[in-house]
Structure formats: C-alpha cells, structure tokens
Design goal:
InterPro entries: DUF3597 (IPR022016). By secondary structure, the protein is mainly alpha-helical. The chain is built from five helices and two strands, in the order H-E-H-H-H-H-E. The protein has a two-stranded parallel ribbon. It is globular, with a radius of gyration of 14 Å.
Length: about 140
C-alpha cells in the first residue's frame, strides 16, 4: 500500500472499506479491529454534515489518547507519529516522491510544509471534511 493510502485509510476508513483517490494504487484497509492509531470505541467514525468524515474530530480524538503532545494541525511529522507511521526523513522523502514533490527534498522544512498541505488536500479529496483554516 502507498504511504498516502495508509494515511488516508487510518483517518477516513480506520475500520475498513474505502479507497484513496490519488495518483497512487488503491489502498488496503485495516480489519474490524481497526489499525494502530485508529479511533477506538464502537466502530463509528465522527462525521460532519453531508456524511463526510470529520477529519478534525478523528485526529483530535487520536491526539487525546496519544500519551504525548502531537501538533497534527501543522506538523507532518506529528501527523505521521499520531497515525503510528514512520516519520523519519526517509519516510517523508518517500511520501514527497509519491505526491510528486518537485522541490529540494534536502530542504526538509519547506518539504514538510508542502507535504502537510498535500496530505490535508488529499484527505478532503477522499471524503474528509477538513477545517477551513487548514485549506489552502
């Protein structure tokens, strides 16, 4: 599964089902038990008006249970950590390649900002309702 597909699945489809719309292969999803970092509980996912998954509610719920302070709203590293993913520079470079980043991957600060914006955009494109302040 692609790294982007894993991110989308863990947020929008943590209990199974759904495919990411991206320039990447279709995603696989976690089984009924959910994935690491998936919302716990009855298997329901917070939704917003129109039936879209409320990305902010899902991620805030995960963050409240993380055991550490993770700023998913601005940091791609913290977002990946929150989802239980490898957030190393090499993993972020892999995500950048997958998302067709054309900048210098050695300028990690610029790349990280771009990656975060792209991931939020892809979550919205795949049926997530993202907070207005995170949209471009």
């Amino acid at each position: 599964m692609s790294l982007l597909g894993t991110i989308v699945s863990k947020i929008l489809h943590p209990f199974g089902g759904g495919e990411a719309k991206a320039d990447t292969p279709a995603t696989e999803t976690a089984g009924a038990g959910g994935a690491a970092g998936a919302p716990s509980g009855t298997g329901t996912i917070p939704t917003a008006e129109g039936g879209k998954v409320d990305v902010e509610a899902v991620l805030n719920d995960m963050a409240s249970k993380a055991g550490q302070t993770l700023n998913w709203r601005t940091s791609i590293v913290d977002l990946m950590k929150l989802l239980g993913l490898d957030s190393s520079l090499s993993a972020r470079k892999e995500l950048a390649q997958e998302l067709h980043y054309s900048g210098d991957t050695n300028d990690s600060a610029t790349m990280n900002v771009w990656l975060h914006k792209q991931v939020i955009k892809k979550l919205e494109e795949n049926g997530g309702k993202v907070p207005d302040d995170l949209k471009d």
